[in-house]
Amino acid sequence: MAIDCVGSTFPDTDRDGLTDEVEAKLGTDPAKVDSDGDTFGDGEEVLLRGTDLLKTDTDNDIVSDNIEVANGTAPNKFDTDGDGLDDGVDPYPWRADGDGDGLVDVIDPSPLIRDADGGGASDGAELAAGTNPLSPGDDRASIDSDADFLTDNDELALGTDPFNPDSDGDRTLDGLADNEEVGPSVADQDGDGLIDGVEERVYHSFAGVNDGQEVTNGTDPLHGANGSTCSI
Q1: Distance between CA 226 and CA 148 in Å, rounded?
Q2: How many Cα atoms are found within 13 Å in the side-chain-facing hemisphere of 26?
Q3: Which of 37, 132, 166, 207 is most buried, by CB atoms within 10 Å?
Q4: Which ranges of the chain does DSSP label H, i.e. alpha helix?
Q5: Range 126-143 burial, b when 16+ CB lie within 10 A, else e
Q6: Alpha helices (H) in 16-140, listed in sequence order
Q7: pTM tops 0.70
């Protein structure tokens, strides 16, 4: 269904960016800004997010659309990072390597546990060393040369620098918890113009949401071009 955002002579009673005529054709309520009650206005869902105006969970991954946006995941894609785990069960749904062991979840023998056998070396480090990630007795000890809370073996598995505590220069140590350092080898994981360390601790946002671009552009994501309403 094509939607034209270049001005319209039809009224927009709820001022959500969609004319009453459009809302009638879409089955939404022209008197309600947010017909499905998911905290996103009807116009925002159509023009910005591509989500279902009549469902609070567009992709049926048991995570509501508004929570997905807050978490930095895609509300219209049930597996945002493409790792084979639905966003609803993936503890780090914006990362292909959820447990940060150097193995993407689709090939990780234990995608939710960094050190499956509890032997002291991460699964990725074990595979790189030729040991069994499910057998604790063969884990090889490793030092932490740069004191960033990641052993040198783990750093080699992750592709980070074992002699640099902040490999990507984002002001977050490589070995901090996954929710603080979402990508130890990429300074700006979501490409929004804010390095991860600043985004997490200064702005308190997830480094999986494109916050910086709209701020830089000075645009309003809730309105179409020239502030017009839309018609079909």
Answers
A1: 49
A2: 26
A3: 207
A4: 20-26, 42-44, 65-71, 123-129, 152-158, 196-201, 211-217
A5: bbbbebbbeebeebeebe
A6: 20-26, 42-44, 65-71, 123-129
A7: no
